[in-house]
User: What shape does this take?
Amino acid sequence: MRKLYIAGNWKMNKTPSEAASFAKELAEKASDAKVKVMIAPTFVCLPDVVKAVKGTNVIVAAQNVNDHKSGAYTGEVSADMLKDIGVNTVILGHSERRQYYGETDEFINAKVLFALESGMDIVLCVGETLEERESGALEDVLKRQVSVGLSGVSAENMKKITIAYEPVWAIGTGKTATPADAEASHAFIRGVVKDIYGSDVAENTIIQYGGSVKPANVKELMAQPDIDGALVGGASLTLEQFLPIIHCVD
Ligand code: 13P
Assistant: This one.
């Protein structure tokens, strides 16, 4: 039985002081949550947010990490630095990183492998653009993103990987994939994982849905058999919206 995993990707929002007070209140109000809860603030917010949720069930993740141990990589942050401040989870391959910063599947894979070697848990994001969907390339794109993104990852390490399916056209647009469309993509992704790793790994892999998730649509999405959680953007920035999403299975 897969436990629901609800994550908030704050993207480039909230100052450190705003992030810390929000995180503290969230942790108090989510203490009885039946789901796994994660928030991903920006790098500069991480130390304060880690302190704010210490001893609670809220996981703090980074939104990116470099694929080297240390060295001359101006502007980058390493896995060791994150782990040193108590951050052991990272989101990789988000469509905004792919789209605006040119991250390829191969580059994302290098980060996945390095983050795993560093002992981190990963949320690996995949998802098609509207153009790819409309041209009939949906399955090819998902298969490539999943198989290249996970290339070289052992079956054992799949315990540390969550996949987030985020159709690019549904991110920040208010357009959610219908529960049936989302389920079809999730089932397809699970099939790709099964082809690579077999049924046991596929059945235990958490696949989150992301793209305009809100209190009004979360229950129907989470009721789909292959949707195991959500990666929430805009609606994770206010307690009014994020708490009902976290409590969607109460
Ligand atoms: P929205 O929920 O704002 O559509 O963002 C989804 C997302 O990109 C989460 O990573």
In short: The domain at 5-246 is CATH 3.20.20.70 (TIM Barrel). The first helix runs from residue 16 to 29. The chain has eleven helices and eight strands. Strands lie at 5-9, 36-40, 58-62, 89-92, 121-126, 161-165, 207-209, 229-232.
